[in-house]
């Protein structure tokens, strides 16, 4: 079964809530896979920060995002990967090219939004939107590109950032138009309360809705159970790895520069050897493959 079919089957199960840990590179993806994640989410903010060292302000290009998504998807081809596709990176033709590039990269699902091309993180102020007709055009372009990709499929998630600037009614109308144009899932960015979340799910039923969990952002920090009870069918956690890596690396650098020695970040004082870290990224599988091919580089062990 392909990753996209697996994702569609998960979405078709009314009792299933799809939890997508946010990853931004091969290492964080490997950690999530090791811990049993059934679905991954490639964050656009994390991709921009890790690959370019820049903030999420519309700086990453299609090539940046596609290349990162292709690498992450290749690590476990049967595990669905949902990836941020921002605005589609241009007009209808470019949106179509983006969708086909993501399909060929092995991405199982993507979301497209209604900000202008020079977009910004959905939890920052001052977002500018294209008009509703252009947003719907982006979704139609995505649907056409999916149809025209031989043997290809991808879950299309329509995201609107209209709530903060234009209100709930405008945001709902945009999502309804996107679903009518062929989007599979609705994504309202910046849901402000549990009451608003429940209203959204009811207003868009039976279309499945996605919740974006960004702690300290503009939305409540719903647990997976809370989000499911509100009626959401899936949730993405884009800053999961970013948030925990920042204080850990900062602490280690401060220790090194301050005392000349890095202490453990684990409570029990454990330090991790290179071999243990490599094992997260498939060391045993690589050695096994080499031996099966007749390689001799690892006959004496690792």
From TrEMBL:
- List the catalytic activities from the record: (2S,3R)-3-hydroxybutane-1,2,3-tricarboxylate = pyruvate + succinate
Q: Which residues form the signal peptide?
A: none
List GO molecular-function terms, semicolon-separated. Answer: methylisocitrate lyase activity
- Gene3D superfamilies membership: Phosphoenolpyruvate-binding domains
What domain of life is recorded for the organism? Eukaryota
Protein name (record): Carboxyvinyl-carboxyphosphonate phosphorylmutase
Q: Which organism is it from?
A: Trematosphaeria pertusa
Q: What is the lineage of its organism?
A: Eukaryota, Fungi, Dikarya, Ascomycota, Pezizomycotina
